[in-house]
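Two proteins follow. First one:
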Amino acid sequence: QVQLVQSGGGLVQAGGSLRLSCVASGSIGSIVVMGWYRQDARWQRDLVARITSSGSTNYADSVKGRFTISRDNAKNTVYLQMNSLTPEDTAVYYCAIDITAADRLTRRYWGQGTQVTVSS
């Protein structure tokens, strides 16, 4: 069993910054990819950023240059530093971690979600 616990988020004014954290615990095998997604009022969950086990990163075009994803392998933690926030960044943010278990199957686990609201 794997649990992901998110922290951070909240209400911030446009131009401000927030930092999200996501800690994985439990029967963790090999973490393949760690990422952040967001779900807005359209209920569509989109990729924001992801980071592989080797440290390679990918970002959605809308957040490039403003958001930074990082990970602490020793702590099984992934972070999302969000700067220059705009109202369009308002959404529920979810962390997702792909883990390969002893059975060699890779499964995706999701955090509980955290609301980020950016006021204009």
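Second one, unrelated to the first:
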Amino acid sequence: QVQLVESGGGLVQAGGSLRLSCAASKNISSINVMGWYRHQAPGERRELLAAITGGGKANSADSVKGRFTISRDTIKNTVFLQMDNLEPEDTGVYYCAADWRVDEFVYWGQGTQVTVSS
């Protein structure tokens, strides 16, 4: 079992930055993969933005590469999503997820709203 708590969302102007945090209830180095998703509209699937392995290997989706960076603090058991040069199209609810099994994450946070104004 892993509990995940996201924070850091809010309202920002286009071109601005936000850093999202995801605090986990266990040692994140023991979690095979953690990731950040975005959900933008009802009926749409959540989009995987970035992921980081228990060993610290990180990757991000092509759609946000160069603007979004995933990182972690293993002392605080927290994973971050640094988002720069935000665009109105980045508006959505951002979710942290953990423990990849077969083809999906098992544990999810409650989500944090990000709104980018033009």
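SUMMARY FIELD: The chain has a mean pLDDT of 96. Residues 72 and 79 are 4 Å apart (CA to CA).
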